[in-house]
Design a protein that fits this description.
By secondary structure, the chain is of the alpha+beta class. Helix 7 crosses helix 15, helix 14 packs antiparallel against helix 17 and helix 16 packs antiparallel against helix 17.
Length: about 525
């Protein structure tokens, strides 16, 4: 208890503790300590008072008797007053059964406030003894669940952003954040990997293509096999290619996003005995770092006509959303996932580093992740997956009209998702989506007006000259990564002497046996 109170009254790990003081506490402690700035001596006095019942009764609590939690707002919500935080803290401790309101002896507690966190979050720390004034123990069973339920109640009571129990984004660890800061990265690896995986999954028609696309985008991929098997894949992990001297950090699909677990991805792909066998072959190749077994449509160049066709698919999705009930969470999550994937592909296409398009993809992905997924949506929606495929496959300029039509339809679909959140009073998502889509629109508009700059084509030979000491595998990875960056997202009218993607994939039923046309010299 003493160590915790001294830390809360001290400067903090990053000197973020400014003017630490109490905003609430049990009646006995608040009678002796006001809201003056805490120093070390005051912190020790409070710690001794909090410890008094445990020491007097010598009550043993498994794992320790110190209860510590923080209540935090997102940075976008601004700051509350001490009086507001005090009321919230008192209500929280009542909900958590620390006070006498539940008919039991109270436990000693205080709420400490001290400036914003490193991320700009206004927050308080609550410190309490888990031994009541009569020597009995506070019941900690399901305390995390109870605290979340209490937080939902307080959000509604005090008019704060309501997180709800429908959607939930995966978080990241302090170690991931520290690594991003240390390496000067604009985001944590978890977010960049999730964006790439979501785009590759949406662009693929089957599992084997997904594996090849992920590897093509420079992502390290490995399967998780069923126990004792190498022909049954139950999950996967991905990693960013590590820098020299570092080890890869692997993330399971479910840890990237609730919509990115392999069983969830499989619901969007065709499934036949042949496609399952092809998928296992590609997983095995990825596990052994070998070339893809059967390169497919990810190596083909898209026909310019597909831009209008897939833009119409996005338009059909948007029109269907207009009559989709807001309570059909699975349908809205599907629309958000596919739209997020398209924005993510566009980010990879024109942003040298994650920017507004990546931000828009992430905001939409938050709407795609549900805590629970029913078997299927109540409303069948048109698919916008083709938009992601053609954006990922585009390699150069095209007609501005087709380009503008595609982005307009995607932006309007994002707007429909924004309106759904607005209608359900999810103000957190409303603010995030509104700002993200406006910023993304400006980036795409600027990219569309950028003049073409003639440059030396990037080839393996050029890379060998630029990086004479690099190995062939590293050069291939760099070639893939560099070809996915920069330039305009407007592709040209492309023709192919043999067959184009238009001919190869009009519909699944019409798709003939694939002719493989991988680019020579590139490991896909």
């Amino acid at each position: 208890m003493a160590g915790l109170m001294i830390y809360l009254a001290g400067p903090g790990r990053a000197n973020e503790h400014e003017e630490p003081h109490l905003v609430a506490g049990d009646s006995a402690l608040m009678a002796w300590h006001d809201d003056n700035e805490l120093n070390r001596d005051a912190a020790l006095d409070i710690a001794n008072a909090l410890d008094r019942a445990q020491k007097f009764f010598e009550t043993e609590v498994d794992g320790g008797h110190v209860f510590h939690c923080s209540l935090s707002l997102s940075a976008e919500e601004g700051q509350l007053t001490d009086e507001q935080w005090g009321a919230i803290a008192n209500d929280f401790m009542t909900e958590m059964d620390f006070t006498e309101d539940g008919g039991k002896a109270p436990a000693r507690w205080v709420a400490v406030r001290h400036g914003l966190s490193k991320n700009g979050n206004d927050h308080i720390h609550i410190v309490a003894s888990m031994v009541r004034d009569d020597g009995t123990k506070w019941n900690s069973w399901k305390s995390k669940y109870k605290s979340q339920q209490a937080a939902r109640t307080l959000e509604k009571k005090y008019g704060l952003n309501q997180l709800g129990d429908v959607r939930a984004e995966r978080g990241f660890t302090p170690a991931e954040q520290a690594k991003a800061v240390r390496q000067g990265l604009p985001e944590v690896e978890r977010h960049s990997l999730a964006r790439t995986v979501r785009s590759c999954a949406a662009a693929s028609t089957d599992e084997a293509e997904f594996v090849r696309r992920a590897r093509q985008e420079g992502v390290l991929v490995r399967p998780r096999y069923a126990a004792g098997r190498t022909d049954v894949v139950t999950g996967y992990s991905v990693a960013v290619r590590p820098r020299k001297g570092e080890r890869a950090v692997w993330f399971g699909g479910n840890s990237l996003g609730r919509d990115l677990a392999l069983p969830k991805l499989r619901t969007g792909w065709e499934s036949t005995p042949e496609s399952a066998a092809a998928a296992v072959a590609e997983w095995n190749a990825a596990a052994r770092n070998r070339r893809p077994v059967t390169p497919g449509r990810e190596t083909l160049e898209p026909s310019a006509d597909l831009w209008a066709r897939y833009a119409n698919d996005v338009s059909a999705l948007r029109e269907k959303l207009a009559t989709t009930p807001y309570g059909d969470h699975v349908a809205w999550a599907q629309a958000a996932r596919e739209t997020s994937a398209a924005f993510g592909a566009w980010s990879k296409r024109i942003e040298p580093s994650p920017g507004p398009l990546a931000d828009a993809a992430r905001e939409l992905s938050k709407s795609a992740q549900l805590r629970r997924y029913p078997s299927r949506p109540a409303v069948a929606l048109p698919s916008a997956r083709g938009a992601t495929m053609i954006i990922l496959a585009a390699t150069s300029r095209s007609e501005r009209a087709a380009y503008a039509l595609m982005f307009r339809q995607l932006a309007q679909t994002a707007r429909a998702i924004h309106d759904m959140h607005q209608a359900t009073d999810d103000l957190r998502r409303v603010r995030g989506l509104s700002a993200a889509v406006i910023a993304a629109s400006k980036v795409v508009e600027a990219s569309a007006t950028t003049q073409t700059i003639t440059a030396q084509p990037l080839t393996m030979e050029v890379l060998r000259e630029q990086h004479p000491g690099a190995g062939e595998e590293a050069l291939r990875a760099r070639l893939i990564a560099e070809r996915s960056r920069g330039g305009s997202p407007i592709p040209t009218t492309l023709t192919r002497p043999e067959k184009t993607l238009q001919q190869a994939g009009t519909t699944r039923a019409e798709e003939p046996d694939r002719e493989l046309h991988p680019n020579p010299g590139i490991e896909r």
